[in-house]
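Hi R.,

Here's the chain you asked about this morning:
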Amino acid sequence: MELFIANCSKQDFLFTYMLPENQRPFSHKIRAGAQMRLVQTQVEADVIIKQHLPYGLMEATHVKKGFGGLCYRFGKPISVEAIEAGIGQSDQENIDRAQEARSITAAAQDQIISLKAQEMGIKQKGGIEFEVTEDKKNAADQEVKFDQRIEVIHEGEGQKGRGRPRKSV
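And the predicted structure, written out as tokens:
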């Protein structure tokens, strides 16, 4: 039986697996956006797949949230469109993880500032605000750049407005 494994990431992947009757690990380098073919029995192919399922290996037609960058298919090669869709899903997973990490970092920094303020005997007036921006590489760089603002809001506070507060009439 043919088992095709595709690398839907932007970096090379060293695909390593072990077979039941041979405890020696086998490794194959899969280039970014490429696939490899393994000829194994059905039992061996199932064992290989089970070894990689916890790390996000998915069937090529069922790539969804939680995708780890590798997909497989039995019998025939994985289409270029499926690999491209996998690369897109893998990119989205990385973007989501980075967003979550930035939010957690902002909350942790706010907690540190709050604790330091308490130690000094003062009250923190509000949550902190982070802004992450990507700079141009050079003067000719016209690509869209990353720009994100993260605000930590404390319970019972409203979101801060921009600029000076208005006088009530």
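Residues 91-137+144-151 form one domain.

Let me know if you need anything else.
M.
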